[in-house]
Amino acid sequence: MAKPRAVNAAARSARVALVTGFDPFGSHIVNPSALIARALNGTEIAGTRIVGRVLPVALAGLDAAIDTALAGIKPRIVLALGLAASEPVIRLERVALNCADFNIPDNAGAIARGAKLEPKGPAARESRLPLDLILERLLAAGIPARFSETAGLYLCNAAMYRLLGRLPASLPCGFVHLPPLPAQIAALLQAHAGRAGERTPGLASMGLEMQQKAVEIALAATLGAAPRAAPAAG
Q1: Quick check: 203 pLDDT over 90?
Q2: Which of 27, 81, 150, 187 suits 164 as a labelling partner, its CA being 20 to 30 A distant?
Q3: Whole-angstrom distance, CA of residue 111 vs CA of residue 28
Q4: Catalytic residue among 28, 87, 99, 177
Q5: Range 70-73, long-range pairs (CB < 8 A, 24+ positions)
Q6: Among positive and negative, which fits the CA dihedral 152, 155, 160, 162?
Q7: Annotation marks residue 192 as catalytic
C-alpha cells in the first residue's frame, strides 16, 4: 500500500525559504536581522521550511558567505534582512545599486569608495518580492512599514545586488531593512546621559517581536504569491 503521508512529508521538507541577516557592525552590539534569521531557522511558514543564515559585514567575504548560505538548498524564495539604524519602520527596498560607497568601515576595516560591485553588471537590480502585497499586509496587521527606493550603499545593498544576480530571475528575492531595537536606542541615550535633543534623529525603535512578525508576514505573502514548483515525475 502506498504511503502518501511519507511522500507528502518528503515533498514538504524540500520546500525551503532562505532568510539572511547580518552580524552586528559599527557601534551596534546587536543586529535584529541576525536575531530573527536565527530565530526563524528550522521553523515552517506556509508549508515551507525556513533556513536562517547570518552574513558577515565584510565586502571581501560576502560572496563566499552567500555561497555557504545557499549550499545544499534550493530555496523557493530568498528574503535578506539588515539593520537601518535610523529607520523608525519596516523598510521594503525596491532597488539595489551596483555601487559600494561606505560611510563607515566594514567589520574587516575596509572602506569602499564608489566601487562597482560587478564591473560588468547592470547599474541596478530590482526587488523580485511582491512589495505591494507585503506592505498591504504589514499595515493591515498594524505594523508600520514603507517603501524605499534604494537599499543604500553599504553591505545591505551589496547583499541584495549579489543575491538578485546570483539567483534565477524567476525566483522571488529581495531585501527588507529593520529598525533598531528599543535596547539599542536606550544604550544610545545612556551614552548621552539621556540628554539627546528632541530633534535628534534616529531615536525611534521597534520591538523584536513585532519585527519578527513583520518578517513572517513578508515570507507568507511571498510564498503565497510565488509559483508552485512542478510536481516530481513518477
Answers
A1: no
A2: 27
A3: 18
A4: 177
A5: 70/18, 70/166, 73/16, 73/18
A6: positive
A7: no
Given 28, 87, 99, 156, the catalytic residue: 156
Task: State residue 119 phi and psi, 5-degree precision.
Answer: -55, -35
Q: Which of 93, 99, 173, 216 is catalytic?
A: 93
User: For this structure, is 156 an active site residue?
Assistant: yes
Q: What is the mean pLDDT of residues 213-219?
A: 98
% of the chain residues with pLDDT over 70? 85
Mean pLDDT for all residues in the chain: 89
Domain assignments of the chain as residue spans, ordered by start: 12-225
Q: Degrees (nearest 5) of the Cα angle 99, 87, 189?
A: 120
Is 177 among the residues known to form the active site? yes
What fold, for 12-225?
Answer: Aminopeptidase (3.40.630)
